[in-house]
Amino acid sequence: MSGHDELIALSACEAVACLKAGDVSPVELVDAAAARIEAVNPAVNAIPTLCLDQARDTAKAMPKPDNPDAGWLAGLPVMIKEVNEVAGVRTTYGSPIFADHVPDHDDLMVDTLRRRGAVVLGKSNIPEFAAGANTFNEVFGKTRNPWNTDMTCGGSSGGSAVSVATGMSWLATGNDLGGSLRTPASFCSVVGLRPSVGRVAQANGLMSQDAYQSLVVEGPIGRDVADVALMLDAQSGHNPQDPKSLASPATPFLQFAREPHAPKRVGFTPNLGIGPMDKEVAAICAATAARFGDAGSVVEDAAPDFTGAMDVFQTLRAALFATIAAPLLDNHRAQLKPEMVWQVEKGLALSSGDVGRASMARTKLYQRAASWFEDYDVLALPAATVPPFDVNIRYIEEVDGHTFDNYVDWIYITYAITLTGCPAISVPAAFTDSGLPVGIQLVGRPYGEAELLSYAAQLEEILALGRMTPMMPMDPASRA
Known about the structure:
Helix content: 25-40%
Number of domains: 1
CATH topology: Amidase signature (AS) enzymes
Structural class: alpha+beta
Distance between the termini: 37 Å
Strand content: 15-25%
Number of strands: 17
Largest sheet: 11 strands, mixed
Number of helices: 16
CATH class: Alpha Beta
């Protein structure tokens, strides 16, 4: 195949098809990505660490494309989120505490991807310990939004979303506790999927120390729904190291994404009835959800009852961070960002009764959601409470006249969905009047990734936004 720009412009599905046909080699794709990173990354600071020599060695050793061992990805280069360990590659978790940490093994998800044909290009930037929805840290600095480099890309999988949006990688990994796949996808006009708990096996890493936790999941980021489905197929499957992990489905997720299907009944809510929402974002998402009607869906104002979700999530999130990071607070307090100190201390102050009551309330919320999905196929709602904001603002403190008292609650629109355990995907919806991306969040039935991907592909087809990524970063000063 010809030049680097042509290779970068391929979707992940197209690139894999070219690999399997022998029209391009994994080494050529690594070289194309390396050239793109050199040209683009200085403007956005999304990829702090590269492992190109390792990537080229892996690419050269890839099985022939007609070999079943080539796997789902057949030698496609991917970017790995900085919170996931890669053997022989600096992995800091975005923290000065681990600034020189080089693991000697891949974590379970990375190992799975390698076995399915992925070539690891490097690491994408995150907030410290992936805590927060603006991607900055004291080791690597701020990652900027390619649609306006004065703005944040969201987080915590911000570097991954930017790398995909700008063509520095065809696919990237992310993980999601309160919206870390969905928020940056919305802010960067790409697609991010939070799968069901257990869909992607996880173990070995800092965020996977509690093998039975059910808040954090691993998932894919891609340029369109089909690309995300392809990566989910590559990530999925049972592994005995993760007691929650599920078997790969009999029918690949990619097949469902390639067969768009309209849901019969869609419920839309601007705010789940529990929090504030930017008016322009709410209007864009309401208009986008209504477009399901173009394919024959019935779209109604409806949602499960999310009463109490904010308190439940805050309690369970704090308990999780206390489990993960209490020793870091004891030994490295001065090196932790203030928000992280607050989060861990909040968790340590909880009683067993606090956690137990929150867990029971979460169960009731799940049951309400499951009952709601007996009547509806999809829940549609915004993927963020605001459009992308100034990269120098650490977090949003006020929305539509409502002031938050912590750094987490502005992302309630995604973290409340986390509590249900249902799969959720952020799909590009439109742009604000100022040219900033807005994503719509679609939530499916429990363990219903297959049908959710089909519905998301249908909306993607209806909106006909065209292929807007990969794109070059936009400096607002140069456009003025």
